[in-house]
Amino acid sequence: MAEETSSFRDRFRGIPKSIAFIWTFEFMERFSYYGNQAVLTLFLLEFLSFDDDTTTAIFHAFKFATYFTPILGAMLADSWQGKYRTIIGLSILYCLGHVMFTMSGLIGSAPYPIPGGSAQARVPVAMIGLALLSMGIGGRKPCVSSFGGDQFKDGQEKQLGVFFSLFYLAINIGAFLSQLITPVLRNDVQCFGQDCFALAFGVPTIVMALGTVLFVLGTFTYKKRPAAGNLLVLVSKAMGNAVKNRCSRSKGESRDHWMDYCDTNIYSPRLVRDIKLVLHVMIMFLPLPIYWTLFSQQGSRWTLQAYRMDGDTGALGTIKPDQIQSLNPLLIIVLIPIFQGAIYPLLEKCRILRSPLQRMCTGMALSSVAYIITGLIQLKIQSYLPVLPADSMAELRVVNMAPDCSLAPVFAPPIDDFTTKFKSPIPYMDQTVLRDVPVGQHTMGFSCVSGPSQNLTAYPVNLGSQEIYSVIVTDKNSQLFAPQPYTTRGKKPDKADPMMRLIFLSDPSNLTPDRMVNVKIQSLGVPDQRHMFYNITENAATDYVVKEPGKFRVEVQYNVNGNLQTGEVSETYIAKNGGVYTVVVFGSTSDQLSLKWFADVEPNQLNILWQVPQYVVITVGEVLFSITGLEFSYSQAPKSMKAVMQAAWLLTIAFGNLITVVVAKSRLIQDQAVEFFMFAVLMAVMTAIFIVMSHFYKYNVIPPDEEDGDEMTKYRTERNSARV
């Protein structure tokens, strides 16, 4: 036991002090990045008013840029500035991108501090911010981890392993915390009467700025290597030389590999050998972008799916749609030690999934399964969507608000198949819905099965095609009365937030002689939410307005003898995401005002916890695919080419996101469930192809390094020796 403890301590003994600065900087940067990404989809959808497909395309174009620009960052660091100065410069650019993005959340009409009349005024600032962010995030990505590795001496392999483990832990802890916190800042804090995107972006901005300052403060502890030339550039030149010589080869000349045409008087034989080993591995990368196409949609399509689900989880509280994605880093933190300590040893004993390629195949298959689950959930969500009336048909809703009356409606003359639907009287404060009523002019009559009210006869109803109407029957001086039918919304809100309108059935003259009454829908949970007073008349309906979900009350204002009076309707009501509501205010005096609310469209029905299985499955797949894939590509590359292999791996992620951009902007698939199933099938096909490729793959035998030192120096030395 003492030996094990000593071995554990030995792994940490000798770790340079500079690692504390680098690890904390990476944690703060990842908090900043994932905090921004967590709310990006809803920012594009709600604040910039893009549709689902454009939102998805912009999100993944941003992700594409962040995984493509690492190549440029590596070139800048290795060929010109060195890693340290590159990290500093691109971190400043990163912070500027954050500032621009935060500013875009402050643009709007009063009371926003930066003038801008519409959502379109925010778009240029936000897009510039995204461009700067992508260059800063991607450019520094390959530099920080390798700069951390540069801090260790030869013979510190154990400590280097500890560093990379802690480095990966920093990434996931930062991601988990930020994906929990920034959605709360967005939703639970109101800025200028709306979700506070400026605060949700501002906090990551401050964290990134502080992280950059902290990294600079550690300057005196760093071991800095000067720029020694870029290996990617050298490899590209050597490959170009081989292609050129192959195209100009003499007739009948043939060599085993096209890289054998590379001029070894210009490029060292060792470089040519290493490039051939890398290309052998990179062929296996060809099917991999599809995996990243699926995986990266957790922040876009999966968030949009959660956006249309019910986040109320009871004892667990309310989970926000951009918060559920924090499950991924949380599961990574939990699953990695479980796999390393239990599952992989068990698989070794059972002699299954022992090779990296076998595990990668399993991870790809699991991502396909995750999308089958996602598609099934989407089908369930779509099954709850309201169905509008067919062509030449309408929907009629009859609401009974006549006290002490069991309402019996009839058509006069009767309409086939509808008389029986009114067989049972409508109780007080209840409604009956008639679907597929023929369009045109109809006459209705209303009577009370029980109650003193006199009948209402010859009530005209003119129904339009594919429209929904509400008839509210009330009592007026012991006589049944109904205003003209109200046109009612039958579709879900364009965004997730609920929509509501108010119908005022009271006579304003009962409140004030001038009949001037204003009403306001007031949120109890968000008092500073933007509100509007409506000048109301008897039996009038306001337009539908969009509000944050929560509990609401109705406030009434009117003048009596020149004094402003304010009254509140005693009852409250709750509006949930995805719902459309009609709130009816009735009563004769301010002290007797009451309300009754009806759901014109039911709120989101499927609970957000139904997304947990797809997150579990795709995260298990990530452990098997992503982490194993990094290990595979690292172990199969010569020491001199590990940076090139990392760049190739990042490119598979970039092109995976590019595929999502193309699919989203092409709009070829209108049904979201069908799109999810399409991705599942595509992933299954690519998995089958990868299984076949893996079967025939021959693992590289990496020659031992003849010498230590900088790889560019080795290639130059060998090339000069060849010339001599």
From TrEMBL:
GO CC annotation: membrane
Intracellular or extracellular location(s): Membrane
Membrane-topology annotation of the record: Multi-pass membrane protein
Lineage: superkingdom: Eukaryota
Pfam (any one): PTR2
Keyword flag Protein transport: yes
MF terms (GO), sorted A to Z: symporter activity
GO terms, biological process: oligopeptide transport; protein transport
Keyword Membrane: yes
Residue stretches spanning the membrane: 56-75, 87-107, 119-139, 160-185, 197-217, 277-295, 330-347, 359-379, 643-664, 676-697
Keywords: Membrane, Peptide transport, Protein transport, Symport, Transmembrane, Transmembrane helix, Transport
Main location group: membrane
InterPro entries cross-referenced by the UniProt entry: MFS_trans_sf, POT_fam, PTR2_symporter_CS
PANTHER family: OLIGOPEPTIDE TRANSPORTER-RELATED (PTHR11654)
Assigned protein family: Belongs to the major facilitator superfamily. Proton-dependent oligopeptide transporter (POT/PTR) (TC 2.A.17) family.
Protein name in the entry: Solute carrier family 15 member 2-like
Organism expressing this protein natively: Branchiostoma belcheri (Amphioxus)
